[in-house]
Write a structure and sequence with these properties.
Two copies of one chain form a homodimer. With about 300 residues, chain A is α/β, with parallel strands linked by helices. Chain A has nine helices and 14 strands. Helix content of chain A is about 15%, strand content about 25%. In chain A, the strands form two sheets. Chain A has a seven-stranded mixed β-sheet. Chain A has a seven-stranded mixed β-sheet with strand order 7-8-9-10-11-12-13. In chain A, helix 2 (about 60-65) links the parallel strand 3 and strand 4 (about 80-85). The interface between A and B is large, with 52 and 52 residues.
Chain lengths: ~300, ~300
């Protein structure tokens, strides 16, 4: 199995369109230690010919044009992209579906609840239902990722619930300071994708480490995990936002309840932080926080990063 | 008044994600005579400090990062983008609104009908209604484009109906071969934007030249006009699609009923083709069709093109 990081940043990307904070200014300046990143998405393949996207970010069109493996190579119209697996219904996970219009056969794999979110927005009907199949995936039940013609791709995916929150635009009536209900159901899921020999876990959003998640990830070969924030209050401290990480449904990388601590005894062989917010100092290659995550055995994902399993 | 072409291509962009046609292959190869183009959008400003977008294309995030004038320069969070004027409800005109999340004050100007399309899709509520104002514009009535704080920008816009069709994803039940009802109302509009001295017309989609449109454009200073297709059946002939231009709500550039013919006697000083489909040979700088449009006095828009009026 191979995987390619199409985008490593959290919602808004890096730099974010309306951020003039020092890190975003550095990214715009061409500073080699502060590489820009598009919004989080991964492509995976068992045969290097047919690819499945894990999430469809708003930057998908640019991500395809930056990734030769995802560009058409056959006939006049075609695509190596056979399907999309969704881990949530927020803009940064689903908006790229709008790029996949043009009557190209593919399958969208998601929980019933996430399909419901898409179905509530008629704009996603640009993915014509006679050519783009919607497949409902039951959490914790492995599903074969078939190609549009029904043949096996060699990949199997399991969606599993992780603590999260409802998509931002469905948070009617909640103030920024309110704690949203952390839920664990079909709204936010992780993906375990494998080819029978290797398995990769992709968990771009996770509000807390639970005993079930700990059990699932123990000894795993490769985990790409929510790297949104370094510390829970970093957006407030930097003066660039009013929300804590907890408020946004993300655990932090640092701290006693953070991701590094939670993984310390898990024995995961390859640990990669992804979905990294523009406020997170691990994006700066010369920061002490970057040094700390690398010293703890983590990689920081970047666009174009290739993972061979 | 100044304007910047943020994107010059029609829906899907150039190259289009699933097109392996020769022109898209050339564009991907880095061929200098076949420059890639993102999806159609224009930015306009009276003072070079505050900008209004005409349409928000799916490529908006990349367009902002390619356009220093649209990047934040003040405080920690800010944007020179003061608002967006919409000419239609199709994905290529509105999907970029999803990029403008993050609680940045701005105004979306559109007809009632186009606001209805957005309102029918809860995903656009990421533009929080307490900070992103929706302003309904009555066709043919000039509206001052105010800044978010209510002060004048120096620009005025008039939306005017042009022949068009309903957005693709609202075409329930229509087969590809069906002729959609061409309508002239609030679904598809052009924009006349001006600073009191100069006026620019932006008409990225137009199904036919009408007497009213002829009268409006006669003697105009600058018109950016629908350059989707060279000829009505070019997608069928190339084997890359089943729809005619007419089917998609676009008149063609060439031919006796085409755009070049319709403008021949209008006395428009500056004529620029925009919203150009990847199948249109005018995208190839060495094509006879490109030579023909230029000989007829037209420019072919490209990303980053600056227009000073």
């Amino acid at each position: 199995m191979q995987a390619i990081v199409l985008g490593a940043a959290a919602g808004g990307g890096f730099p974010q369109w309306n951020s003039n904070a020092p890190a975003c200014r550095r990214a715009r300046s061409g500073d080699q230690a502060t590489r820009p990143r598009t919004q989080a998405s991964l492509a995976a393949s068992a045969d290097a010919r047919h690819w499945f996207l894990l999430n469809a970010s708003p930057d998908l069109r640019a991500q395809i044009e930056a990734t030769p493996a995802l560009q058409p190579h056959e006939g006049l119209r075609s695509s190596p992209i056979a399907g999309v697996v969704l881990t949530g219904g927020d803009v940064d996970a689903v908006a790229g579906l709008l790029t996949l219009r043009e009557r190209q056969a593919l399958t969208v794999f998601a929980t019933r609840r996430i399909h419901d979110v898409l179905d509530a927005n008629p704009i996603f009907d640009v993915l014509a239902r006679d050519v783009v199949r919607r497949q409902t995936v039951v959490p914790d039940a492995p599903v074969a990722l078939t190609l549009p013609d029904g043949t096996p791709s060699g990949l199997t995916a399991t969606l599993f619930p992780v603590p999260g929150k409802v998509p931002l635009y469905l948070e009617a009536g909640l103030a920024d300071s309110d704690a949203p209900p952390v839920i664990e159901g079909e709204e936010t899921v992780g993906v375990a994708i494998g080819d029978g020999r290797s398995t990769l876990h992709f968990i771009p959003g996770c509000a807390a480490m639970t005993p079930a998640l700990t059990a699932r990830l123990r000894g795993a070969e490769c985990v790409l995990f929510d790297g949104t924030l370094w510390r829970d209050d970093e957006m407030l401290r930097a003066g660039i936002g009013s929300k804590t990480g907890r408020r946004m449904g993300h655990m932090s990388v640092a701290g006693p309840e953070g991701t590094m601590a939670a993984f310390r005894e898990l024995g995961v062989r390859r640990r990669i932080l992804i979905h990294i917010n523009n406020s997170n100092p691990i994006l700066l290659e010369d920061s002490p926080e970057r040094e700390a995550v690398e010293a703890a055995g983590w990689d920081v994902a970047h666009d174009g990063m290739e993972i061979a399993l």
